[in-house]
Amino acid sequence: MTRGCNFSAGPAALPEEVLRQAQSELLEWGSARASVMEISHRSRAFMDLAEESEQDLRDLMSIPDNYRVLFLQGGATQHFAQIPMNLARPDQSADYIVTGAWGEKAVREGSPYVQARIAASSIDSHYTRIPARSAWDLDPDACYLHYTPNETIHGVEFQDVPEVGNVPLIADMSSDILSRPIDVSRFGLIYAGAQKNIGASGLVILIIRDDLLERCPDSMARIFSYAEHAAGRSLFNTPNTYGWYLASLVFKWLKAQGGVVAMGERNKSKAELLYSTIDQSDFYSNPVEASARSWMNVPFFLGRPELDAAFLAEADAAGLIGLKGHRVLGGMRASIYNAISLDQVRTLVDFMRDFASRHG
Ligand code: PMP
Questions:
Q1: 196 catalytically annotated
Q2: Residue 232 class from Cβ within 10 Å (0-12 exposed, 13-18 middle, 19+ buried)?
């Protein structure tokens, strides 16, 4: 068996060069005479990796100096709760824009720690669009406004950062971080689980504006406090050292590819090719409004769902894996994160056309 073309939504494909490098230095990393997994997180060598990787991410995303970059754990889901623990009190109110399943979960997990108010939702469209900005019911006194720029399950993505006045904007960028250029200064806080565009699961990158750290209550357990993690440079306790190392390799790979500008161009071409293939056929469909379609996650459906199993089996035999849709929606989903090349998407659309011509 050979490695497949992996369209998994997450954990997801990593650049092959990164995996090969990790393989080659698995037993001995640099001059450590041990694996990077086997040395202290407080050793000079690991602290150098930590510093350099942070700098690489700062370069890639042009992160301004008044933001801290934290390398944390717990998955994005833990931070659904930890964000209000740090930035609000249970009697205060925060606004949420809900455009899919992850936004819903952010509300649910955050609710014990803040009055989570849904300021706009597209549930009425089964999450196939983004509510018009003019229809958002924003509270100018909200502690923050939370949204999900890319909804991984529903395949809905904001094409621009919304204008929200002075309320700190918080974005769950788990599935679109580093996929195109964004202006970090528009945000109060950005966070992302690593297992799509950054590396392996078990690592969360969190970028927070300095002034928001002042809100972290002194009374909270220190392990949950972003201020504490910032003060300890993400070494308050033992971090996910191997995950951090993998992220550091992915950041170097991204720089060598031309950074987020090059990624954005490539991701746009990949998405256009896949959506145009779907739209030009009577056999496949995608329900998302054109202006809200994700560049990262493309759910699609066969007109005859009884062929789903055959589609997946034939795709698998052709080396195309990870295409089964999320259980909430059924059908198919192709996740085409940074590590997926335009050629791999060409292979997928060739297979889709061929399958349609044989079964259509
Ligand atoms: N937010 C988004 C947008 C996601 O795609 C995911 C995972 N697929 C999560 C949050 C949850 O991440 P985790 O499982 O790492 O907690």
A1: yes
A2: middle
Q: Give the atom of ligand 1 at the shortest distance from the alpha carbon of 78.
A: 16
Using CB distances shorter than 6 Å, the residues near ligand 1 are 10, 75-77, 102, 148, 152, 172, 174-175, 193, 201
Residue 6 belongs to a domain: no
**Does residue 208 belong to any structural domain of this protein?**
yes
Q: Look at residues 78, 112, 82, 114 and name the one whose alpha carbon lies nearest to residue 96.
A: 114
The pLDDT tens digits for 98-144 are: 999 999 999 999 999 999 999 999 999 999 999 999 999 999 999 99
CA 27–ligand 1 middle distance (angstroms): 31
Q: Is 328 exposed, middle or buried (0-12, 13-18, 19+ CB in 10 A)?
A: exposed
Domain boundaries, position 314: 258-359
Ligand 1, atom 3: nearest CA belongs to which residue? 174
Question: What CATH number did the domain enclosing 129 receive?
Answer: 3.40.640.10
Global confidence as pTM: 0.98
Tens digits of residue pLDDT in 226-261: 999 999 999 999 999 999 999 999 999 999 999 999
Nearest-CA residue for atom 13 of ligand 1 = 75
Q: How far apart are CA 178 and CA 264, in angstroms?
A: 8
